[in-house]
Amino acid sequence: MDKGTFLWFTGVPASGKSTIGRGVEKALKERGIRIENLDADEIRANLSPDLGFTAKDRDLNTKRLAFMGKILTRNGVCAIVAAVSPLREHRDRARKLVDSFLEVHVKATLDTCKQRDPKGLYKRAERGEIADIAGWHMPYEAPEKPEVDLDTDTEDVDTCVNKVLLTMETLGYIPKADGTAKAYSDEDQKKVEERLRGLGYIE
Ligand code: ADP
Fold first, then answer.
1. What is the C-alpha separation between 48 and 43, in angstroms, rounded?
2. For 152-180, b where at least 16 C-beta lie within 10 A, e where not — what string?
3. pTM exceeds 0.85 for this model
4. Distances from the Cα of 138 to the Cαs of 60, 61, 119, 130, 133, in angstroms?
């Protein structure tokens, strides 16, 4: 476990990527694991103020995030990216750069996202100010084989965080939790193992 895991959260706006990413970050820190959350807004403000939201800029933005993930994880630090990243090609490009990649698909229905709308994006779209929301105006290419598949319409934040941690453990990316840190049942554990086996990620 001398290399860090690269956790890439993808999903339409307001599906819950940042919220779950922060939960995973906190839980990993509590277990003494070094982790850097590459907050999309912070990175854009500090490293990529030159980038907007055109197709070319989004391409460059995911490239930069992927590169940062690569240099952190090769030094034993886990990295979290929470980005809509609607294009499969961009996510697969990041996957190819690191040994321990975990793609987390965060799902929610359009109705739920419109209701949550923490950044007011959907309201702006309803007023006709923007028309580039992935999953609504633009295609969102769902991952075909994400290591973790979360449905935030039916699973609460803690359940989602635990599924991510359990998947990391099952893939051998982090040590198994001891009795006190373990917050999931044997049945949850079995489901995660079956899923990863079905996808060919474990034997
Ligand atoms: P994103 O990063 O995908 O744009 P955010 O995490 O910023 O989304 O916002 C999601 C909103 O939905 C937050 O206000 C969060 O509290 C709420 N929410 C409700 N249920 C969940 C859940 N199960 N998982 C994640 N977020 C949830």
1. 6
2. beebeeebbbbbbbbbbbbbebbeebeee
3. yes
4. 18, 18, 18, 12, 6
**CATH number, residue 107:** 3.40.50.300
pLDDT tens, position by position, 29-64: 999 999 999 988 888 889 899 998 888 999 999 999
Which atom number of ligand 1 is nearest to the Cα of residue 84? 3
* Residues 163-177: tens digit of each pLDDT: 999 999 999 999 988
Question: Domain of 130?
Answer: 6-155
> Average pLDDT over the chain, rounded to whole?
94
Q: Which residues are catalytic?
A: 85
Place of tokens 């895991």: 5
- State in Å: Cα 75 to ligand 1 middle: 30
Domain assignment present for residue 193? The answer is no
